[in-house]
Amino acid sequence: MKKAGIIILIIGLALTIFTTVTFFTREKIVDMGEIQISANKRHNVNWSPFIGLAVMAVGGVLMLVPSKR
Prior knowledge:
- The chain is an alpha+beta fold.
- The chain has 2 helices and 2 strands; from the N terminus they run αββα.
- It has one domain (2-64).
- It has a two-stranded antiparallel sheet.
- Helix 1 (2-17) packs antiparallel against helix 2.
- The N and C termini lie close together (11 Å).
């Protein structure tokens, strides 16, 4: 449980620091026979830093819970 708690804690820290992810997709604008024009379309995925704090809290609880071995 301690290893899982540490991993979840690190993921929560990353979610708190990096609150957005940007990625691009290729979109076709004009398609006239052999002439094709395409452009990259930007997409953003945003989340609140409080989600990262909540994930870190779960990781902290998992680190504190004693294992059943």
